[in-house]
Amino acid sequence: MVKIEDSCVDCGLPCLGKNCPYAEEAHYYCDKCGKEDILYEVGHQQLCAECILDLFCTVEGSDI
Ligand SMILES: [Zn+2]
Q1: pLDDT in the model for residue 44
Q2: 54 Cβ neighbours under 8 A, 6+ residues apart
Q3: Distance from the CA of 6 to the center of ligand 1, in angstroms?
Q4: Is residue 64 in a domain?
């Protein structure tokens, strides 16, 4: 999921409010584990690489 969050860094300058690039920063969280990461569209979900791999079974014997 994409969440727009206030990521104020307390830069010490007079606050620009909505005009500050940090005020409304997009953050990308996995729909399954909630980790902030690179996401991939899988059906209607947005998942991280780890969760996508969890959806598949390894071929027996290939994981030595
Ligand atoms: Zn995940």
Answers
A1: 95
A2: 32
A3: 23
A4: no
The residue written with tokens 């209607």 in the block is 44
Specify if 28 maps to a domain: yes
Q: Which tens digit of pLDDT belongs to each residue from 5-34? A: 999 999 999 999 889 989 999 999 999 999
pLDDT at 64 over 80: no
For the chain, what is the domain count? 1
- Rounded CA-CA distance 40/44 in Å is 10
How many angstroms does the Cα of residue 3 sit away from the middle of ligand 1?
Answer: 15
Boundaries of domain holding 44: 2-54
DSSP H or E segment with residue 47? strand 45-47
